[in-house]
Structure prediction request, 328 residues.
Amino acid sequence: MKHHLISAADLTRDDAVLILDTAEEMARVADRPIKKLPTLRGRTVVNLFFEDSTRTRISFEAAAKRLSADVINFSAKGSSVSKGESLKDTALTLEAMGADAVVIRHHASGAPYRLANSGWIDGAVVNAGDGTHEHPTQALLDAFTMRRRLVGRDRGIGRDLAGRRITIVGDVLHSRVARSNVLLLNTLGAEVTLVAPPTLVPIGVESWPCEVSYDLDSVLPKSDAVMMLRVQRERMNAAFFPTEREYSRRYGLDGDRMARMPEDSIVMHPGPMNRGMEITAEVADSDRCTAVEQVANGVSTRMAVLYLLLGGAEPAAPAPHARTEETK
Prediction:
């Protein structure tokens, strides 16, 4: 792996599979009475959040603490940033404090790349979401969830998602989750189809490694996983569709539509959900919806990322065939 994780495009297939395999080992830690490893003891991880996010920040904090790292949570609100301090000065302050890794979430696309390539900081930089650009660890936890559900926990080790058909539905235009997922899933061999209103499809999408459709009903019967995206009204400065009811009628997932999906397919959502708009309560609360699993898997996946960036380049546990004292 590279020193930083800025984009899903930074990952080769081997890198991605290594992270997923390591996340599988980290997930086993969650089943223990004491959910800690000493791997990053003495290391400092800073959560540098210029944008609000409860789910992602807590997930990274839990991941770092389970690896025994010291964690500093930095929020732009109430800090020197709100008084006009620049990203450079903030980075230099963190460097002076001895940050080994900086997990950054920023409203400006490209901010993590700027931080990683500026020379302001020597530690690893992890992109936790930048503008409408990317969110690579979300794509990794989504891929981890898909591999567990579609391939199987035991049989998934060392495997990718080759040949799996993944459909991503909704507000693709404003979704960094969609961008990272398209890149990573293509690297892992999956076939990705985007479904959205024409107004919510990005310019230049023809260069993305995926198909585009405007007809959800035609795609559902051949989808192994359907990922519903939240409509991000906070990023919209115009009317992108007539009404919420019209959007839900054409692009929302309800029980009838879910019934048209293959029997063993799954429904995903990166959260938070607009229940009743892009997804109904019936679907969100069904056994086929992995939204809660994705949150749990996020901790394991981010543990794997931090471990591989700061701790080592090999999986955190012996290979499955290796014998231990317990199995002798």
Observations:
- Residues 291-310 form the longest helix (20 residues).
- The domain at 8-134+294-310 is CATH 3.40.50.1370 (Rossmann fold).
